[in-house]
Design brief:
This protein is an alpha+beta fold. The protein is about 25% helix and about 50% strand. It has a 3-stranded antiparallel β-sheet, with helices on one face. The longest helix has 16 residues. It starts with 8 loop residues before the first helix and ends with a strand.
Length: about 70
């Protein structure tokens, strides 16, 4: 995810949520995104979220290097 390396973890979490939401809501099968949680371990920020689709809910995660 470009432009996030070296940024404050709070900023990275906010920007990651914005980017994920923008990307997924372009798909008509996605009804919503919720339950964003974040953890930072060393140089990796992990975002876990739930994607509600026409097929049901799916929990997924994304990892981003921040250093």
């Amino acid at each position: 995810m470009g432009g996030l390396i070296g940024q404050d973890p709070g900023y990275v979490a906010s920007e990651l949520q914005r980017r994920i939401t923008a990307a997924l809501t372009m798909d008509d099968r996605v009804r919503g995104i919720s339950d964003f949680t974040y953890s930072v371990k060393r140089e990796v920020l992990t975002a876990t979220l739930t994607v509600s689709t026409v097929y049901g809910d799916v929990q997924t995660s994304v990892e981003v290097n921040i250093t």
